[in-house]
Amino acid sequence: MASSSPKLLLLLATSLLACGGLPVLVAADYAPMTLTVVNNCPFPVWPGIQANSGHDILEGGGFFLPSLSHKSFPAPTHPWSGRIWARTGCTPGSGAQLHCATGDCGGRLQCGGLGGAAPATLAQVNLHHNSDDQASYGVSVVDGFNVGLSVTPHEGRGNCPVLACRKDLTQTCPGELQVRSPAGGGAVVACKSGCEAFRTDELCCRNMYNSPRTCRASKYSEFFKRECPQAFTYAHDSPSLTHQCAAPRELKVIFCH
């Protein structure tokens, strides 16, 4: 359990300014928190991080992570949201270039605000929201799958489950959704969503299908849901496990876990 209560974002000072007699509005940050990205895969990955609009870019948006290693860094001490994913099968280019078989972000080592190319498994994170310092997190295969991952909170208050899509779906991916490597004998390296594979409005929940009433599960999203019931599998999917986790000390995103 966390040992201290989360701080309010803004505290109204009880004293007055010496000159002018105006109240002082003092900004206060939330309690310190660590984000840790773990590579439990038997191969290197290049994690990518994309912040939602207006939020800080963390760790330049991407870095190298050898097999069986981790990287920890301070979480923002103010509200933040974004996504974290693994880039795989990457080949460094000149300068800061990096070209990846899955999850590529414009051929860059540090994504710098760019998202990853589908298909890629996503960890979605929302920190420091609501007055009790909520941390929301989840796993999404709406954009397809490249590696299994879990999101694990530590020392939070309330309902703080581990959420995951642990199975290697490259082993069971339907043929029409498979992405194969041009090298290595054409091994399956990722599994597309139905939307990515066929680009129809219905499968992508676009236009007349862009509402909870008209956006429905398909046989492709149902494949992902059978394999990973805790994950979001299409645009208006609902998670099978909800949570209200307040002020975790650490949030781990673990690839191949």
TrEMBL record:
Alphabetized Gene3D superfamilies for the sequence: Thaumatin
Annotated disulfide bonds: C41-C256, C90-C100, C105-C111, C160-C245, C165-C228, C173-C191, C195-C204, C205-C215
This protein's UniProt keywords: Disulfide bond, Signal
Signal sequence annotation: 1-28
Official protein name in the record: Osmotin-like protein
Organism of derivation: Urochloa decumbens
